[in-house]
Amino acid sequence: MSAAVTHPLVAELVERHRATLAAAVDAAAERDYWSPYPEFPKAYGESAAADGRAAFEALLNRPFELPGHPTDGDLVGGEVSPYGVELGIGYPHAGPDALIAALSAARPAWAAADPITRAAVCLEILARINARSHEFANAVMHTTGQAYAMAFQAGGPHAQDRGLEAVAYAYAEQTRLPRSAGWTKPQGKRDPLVMTKEFTVVPRGLALLIGCNTFPTWNGFPGLFASLATGNPVLVKPHPRAVLPLALTVRTAREVLAEAGFPADLVCLAAEHEGGTVARTLAVRPEIRLIDYTGSTAFGDWLEEHAKQAEVYTEKAGVNTVVVDSTADYKGMLNNLAFSLSLYSGQMCTTPQNLLIPRTGIDTDQGAKSYDDVVRDLAAALEGLLSDDARAAAVLGAVVNPGVLQRSAAAAGGEYGELALAPRAVEHPEFPGATVRTPALVKLDADKPDDRAVFRAECFGPVSFAVAVENTAAAVELLRDTVRVQGAMTASAYTTSAEVEAALVGAALDAGVSLSLNLTGGVYANQTAAFSDLHGTGANPAANSAYCDGAFVANRFRTVEIRRHG
Predict the structure, then answer these.
(1) CB of 140 within 8 A of CB of 216?
(2) Roughly how many angstroms between the first and final C-alpha of the chain, as a whole number?
(3) Prior bond to 548 cis, omega within 30?
(4) pLDDT per residue over 166-217, tens digit each?
(5) How confident is the model over 6-54, as pLDDT tens digits?
(6) Is the dihedral of CA 43, 48, 49, 52 positive or negative?
(7) What is the rounded distance in angstroms from the CA atom of residue 424 to the CA atom of residue 408?
């Protein structure tokens, strides 16, 4: 890892983060567990939680400071916590022309830096974010509705892992070719042909990150750091209801860049009021050459269709499916499914939605279980997990937006089908204004056209469907077809049969979805680990890319060759 650096801090950062970068590159190759960022809150010090909350509260009801950031003088905001707290934060506003001009002016210095310099600066940004994980946890909690423990882990260290993973891949891809090489071709009795060749990484251009409401850092950091580490300035356009976590990220990045001798405007914030259309305006600007987006299928499809000048990386909606064939741990299966369906009120792109269960029932270690047995026992497992309001609130978090609440109400009213378990309102012990709902479990039949129309569409939030199917073979085919047509971020299955397992693996490979088999312990279908698990595949309609593989970073730059006679 050689470096050509000029600013004194850059040289220091390269040495400070060299070992972490090397370990991250190795971890991505080995795929075992590894993380430099502790996921346990107490690892950050006895007073860290209180300090983080105080830092968060100091941001409320005042303008958000971004020194030197482009602005037209207006402030935008309006975030309201799903826990019932108005944040009252105003963010500096600037028009597209001013933002793009600032990013374009900052670009040359960053493009000229070598890969190790850019990686070291990115790792310093992540290190400073990591030190403020409790502050970020409060920001994530009060913009997304995640419970604090989840906001700390997923919004903090796990998001930082994903950012570091992207930097590691970016560094590896940029250094795959040597900086220079000699080329000698023998010519028999004549003098050999001798050339010297130089290979220079050239960034694509300006990058646009369009953030989501539910996981602004976990879904935002991969694209942000993949673009930045490959030399591209990044314009961060947060979701209007979840600005703060990405605004804090932008401020931290700008501070590190300026200290390292680079223009702070390499990372800018495009904040807007709810209902604004600046993302559409920016997405088709010719200067924008990279776009990262997480959110609805409709806008993701629009980006892919209209932002032709850019490389577009999307994570959209899907219908995640579980095939239940048989199990050697019936209680473990039920508990694992209950937690998966409940975590963050099902407001995850990886949450299972459809549970395909044979009408004839399944074999278990507790004997044969009918379809009705399985559904009834799963409902009981959900009730047992969420019977205490305080514990339920810690698992469920809060409802993130009115659309999720409407779907929960529709399930409660029987609009989707027969209820096996009705949702109920939960009183949050700390935030009386929080909107919290337990999951609904609905019984449907795969052979009924009206039921098929329900479970074949995405129903984002705490609503899941127990779908009766003819047999396991029909379930496998329904899994394959659902992923091919609607897409899926995850698939999972339970079986004790080697033959069924082979059929499931074949369907997953054919449809292009990652598959989890027989999860009964502390790993859940809706969780993925950086440096080991791929999030998405890019092989089905739910996403056109994966966190994180070489394809996620390699098109963010090009390599230009200069050759001379030696």
Answers:
(1) yes
(2) 26
(3) yes
(4) 999 999 999 999 999 999 999 999 999 999 999 999 999 999 999 999 999 9
(5) 688 999 999 999 999 999 999 999 999 999 999 999 999 999 999 999 9
(6) negative
(7) 9
DSSP-based three-state secondary structure for 289: strand
429 vs 58, 394, 401, CA distance in Å?
Answer: 23, 10, 20
The residues with which 258 forms a beta bridge, in sequence order, are none
Strands of the 234-237 sheet, one edge to the other = 267-269, 234-237, 206-210, 288-294, 311-315
Q: Which amino acid is at 305?
A: E
Read off the tokens for 192: 């050999």
Strand partners, 195: 183, 565
Task: Report the pLDDT value the prediction gives residue 4, as an integer from 0 to 100.
Answer: 46
The token duo for 430 is 């700390």
> What is the 8-class DSSP label of residue 270?
-
Q: Cis (ω within 30 of 0) for the bond into 212?
A: no
Average pLDDT for the chain? 96
Indicate the pTM of the whole model: 0.96
| Three-class SS state of 87 | coil
With b meaning 16 or more CB within 10 Å and e meaning fewer, what string describes 253-263?
bbbbbeebbbb
Pairwise CA distance, residues 521 & 51, whole Å = 34
Euclidean distance between CA atoms 561 and 483, whole angstroms? 41
| Residue type for position 160 | Q
Residue (of 387, 388, 359) closest to 374 by Cα position: 359
Residue in this structure with the two tokens 């309001």, named with its chain if needed: 389
Q: Shortest CA distance to 542 belongs to which of 381, 324, 316?
A: 316
